[in-house]
Please model this.
Amino acid sequence: MSNTTVIIIAVVVVLIALLAFKFIHNHGIHNDVENLKNVCSEIFIAKGVEKLASQDFIQTLKEKTGVSQKVALTLFGKARQLGIIRIVDRFVELVK
Model:
């Protein structure tokens, strides 16, 4: 095999590994309920409040988990479905 072929194969393998890591990382956050509970409680502890505006909560969730806005919204919805948080008058509060 020539040097060009080896380099191309190496680049393809690295790209596949990066895609696999990203996929596993994103789905790990979605499927781990305890992790989601911990992140939600950490958000309220870090802010030092009991209620947050929805957009502030989503932005902080995005920053804490290192995901895109779309995935943060998905996690927000999942947290609501699981009863981790609830929305009262456009504010998010942690269910205790």
The mean pLDDT is 89. Residues 76 and 90 are 13 Å apart (CA to CA).
